Protein 1
Amino acid sequence: MVDVLSQNEIDALLAALSSGEMDAEELKKEESEKRVRTYDFKRAVRFSKDHIRSLTRIHENFARYLTTFFSAQLRTFVQINVVQVEQLPYDEFIRSIPKMTILNIFEASPLEGRMVMEVHPNVAYAMLDRMLGGVGTSPSKINALTEIETIVMEKIFARAFDSLQEAWKTVIDIQPRLEALETNPQFMQIVSPNETIALISLSTKIGDTTGMINLCIPHVVIEPIMPRLSVHHWFVSQKKTRAQEEIDALQSRLTKAELPVIAELGNSQITIHEFLNLAVGDVIKLNRESGEPLHMMVGDRLKYFGSPGTVKGKLAVQITEIVNEGAEDYDE
């Protein structure tokens, strides 16, 4: 990223050049030299800034969906926000989380591989306390989960993955499924220690309890869909989706539109005097013979030819011919 100087820094630089404190030739020489940047092979850069921005956008939606879900389930104030999206080795992620925590290991077909949603004990136990009828506080001492507590947590987090599916829908239709719930990070080895992961950190507040929810997505899992995380693909897919939705909505409204359909026996012209003197039994001569097909009008356009008849004692018209597309005008 190019550094942008402030106005004060520009003024100080110009003053130094004018007073001779700095040599312009030396600056040019330094600029022409090759710049060397240190690269740590243990922290391989697999996700570009474009990918990080897309992941941030996706999981901001995930945070909103998750806030709504937990608020409804726990019936208390819940606020979840994306704090940071970064890439780091898997081993570094394992060393950064507590020794006793809640690890939801899940898969998301059609993606191959496993991912992890780590929930800080403060948050997890506050959820558990709320689900079991408490006020939503976290205990001062964290103990191992009982069988009942494990089942309750598995159920609520398994349903929370529906929010992840909804958030990723704009990129790929995934089917997240909880595989296991662990409490000790040392027993969880989903990828090699040096594998690069995307770590999405979500700050979580439940009532008065605060903590973090971390989503660990290995690069090897989402590598097949990395091109879809580019900004160009994102906007193109959004545009296509929006255009298709507009087309579907338009077609749905058109199918419900009502149009007048008129079967014309023929027409005739009479004077006003003849019209005023019409009486029961009078005959008006039309411009078509009785054997000619009827003109069927949709709105004011000729669309079909038909013949008169009856169906179950009611007058009806049978379509015998469809007027060619574009034949809007016809001779009487």
Note: The two ends are 75 Å apart (CA to CA).
Protein 2
Amino acid sequence: MTQSQRLLLIAPSAMTRTPAFDRAAALALAMQLPLHIVAFDYSQALAVAGLFAPEQFNRARDGYLQTHRQWLVDQAGLLSKQGVEVTSEVVWVQHPYEEILNFITEMPLALIIKDAQEESAYKRVFFTPLDWQLLRDCPVPVHLVTTALNARPRNVLAIIDVLRDEDQDPVFNDQIISAAAKLAAVCDASLELLHVYDWTAIYVQDMGIGALPLASGIHEMLGAAQHEAFAAIAERHGVSPQRRHFIVGAPVPSICEFVSDHRTDVIVMGTVQHKGLSKLIGTTAEHLLHRAPCSVLAIKPGRMLQS
């Protein structure tokens, strides 16, 4: 008999209850899946000191791990009282991503949940190297939590791109919408669908041969084609006209404004292996993830959110 799927919550190394705990509990109850909590601990200074005093290092490490382990057990107990089937562990490891891959191998995971770190000086989210590794390479859907607005999402937004290039399967749009629809359904949340038509990007691409789009109206024609494609995919997924949003403008500011106006809890978007430094699905996703106007659920091609 195959092992049932579960959610994995990556707890912060600091013994602090964060919004991701409440989101993980809410999703575990909504999706009727068990939850496993793991915290990764490591101290470079302590590890170096251990080279000279291994016995003292072992005692110090084991003592700290036991304290952290008991704290997680206490948190798990609180979640159990809410009806969540939950287990927990603390792992001493320098490179958490490799350990996360071991979890993926050892247990079938429906979703990985983690807090994104807020940089208070700028009131924006700063993604750590581990966050970027998860978004870029992790084969399992990743949910980065940025706010405690609603533990159980009430407003879910699927963002699609109707002009994916030859390396990005158009079917990926269907997967993004399906994942968002499943999340909205299990959480009894509203589902909105959004595409932003950035005609300025098309204009800039064409600057090498003159301002052809503006002179000939090609940008209006392309916009109409994108709107038609957007309407078709929305119709295919049963998204009502009132829930479809086709916006003309710069993608990132338009999305951030939409999220603010609609009090969106979760953006569902796609990330893929991609050429370039970020290896994300283009600069829009990269910039949007930097600004993170709300929590983000990122999925990869071929990976569906289980319900």
Note: Residues 206-211, 275-282 have pLDDT under 50 and may be disordered.
Protein 3
Amino acid sequence: MRAPQDARATPPRAIGLWGGLSANVLNMIGIGPFVTIPLALSALAGPSVFLGWIAGAVLCLCDGMVWAELGSTIPESGGPYHYLREAYGRERFGRLFGFLYLWQTLLTAPLSIGSAAVGFAQYAGYLVPSLDGTGRGLVAAGLCLFNTAVLYRKVGDIQKLSLAISVVVAIACVWIVGSGMAHFDRATAMHFMQTRHDGGHGFWLGLGAVALIAVYDYGGYNNVCMLGGEVKNPRRTIPMAVLLSIPLVATLYLGLNVAILGVLPWEQAAHSKFVVADFMQAIHGGMGGTLAVLLILLASWGSALVVLLGYSRVPYAAAEQGQFFRPFARLHPRDGFPTVSLLFVGVTSAMACFLSLESLIATLMVVQILFQYIAQCFAVVILRRRKADASVFRMPLYPLPIAVSLVGWLYLVATSGWLSIAVGVGAVVVGTLVFLWQARSTRSWPFPNA
């Protein structure tokens, strides 16, 4: 794992504000809410469920300020890998944190991309009822491999494609929410508002479960940070793309919840496999349900596409710094995109598609919180003291957003269940041991012969 040559080419900065915003929004408006609304209603039914969605949005907005400041300060592809290395010392604890981020990415990237693809396959079952579990796995894996082929080109072409899909998806979401509002039934909504069923959870555990689902659904507002080295005018573009995408999508998701619960009885919504399709079928008949599914498939395909685009830059960024296997730093000789890194993430994502979607969400979020999100909150404080560049974005109300983020992340971990916590902690321990083994083999920090 030798460091690459200094003369190595770098990807061009070709992503503007609209491209960055579409990369975030398309990631956020993926399959998430279309499959997790029933899970949220099962965890905390009644009007309290909206508190979970709002709490998730507030947490994401505060965390988005953390990402915006870090992305503006260090606008490099592979974002968090550089943030943690720089904040905690490139030759000291930053080596450990950078490695742990890379370690968790090798675990979570396939799960994140695979979850979008599995959701795609689940809704495909509405159109092909005979599609069984194995068939859905094959469809999801095929989608990952297809997206890998689509992304095997220069990023400027992908920016145009993602922007076009984002426009179509936004129009579709407005149509779905608008249809619900136009056919809103007050009696159905009042039945939901008078419900006090907590889904078997205590209130605080249920609130944590819904907030965790909401954060998963809102996830993607940081996607532009993964592409920092390919963003034009990054110190302005990255913060704007992050902070505009969160309230935009949060408003859309809350509207989607209100619309569905004003048309479908909440008991039906809580047990539906295709809740949005059932909702649109109730309004527009069979053709409405089919059209809604086609639009959801487009959204989930686009989400899987841009998540793969963002995560494929992380192994490349580490290898380009000499911290990962050298072939991952290889760029396409003509178009300047990471080739080996893209192929690796795409293939491992296809392999992850044979896991259950529901079983991935809590573990995926806990691993990311323990490995990355908490460490990034402290990284902002460290870098603020060290860098005083006036052109860098500074979050308002500092340090309140950081405090809210820390409390929120710890609360979500505490209410996620012991199995998810055990997997997350175990992954941290194993990653640390692998780092120490590698450091001892290479005679680098923290061993005396460094």
Note: DSSP finds 17 helices and no strands in the chain.
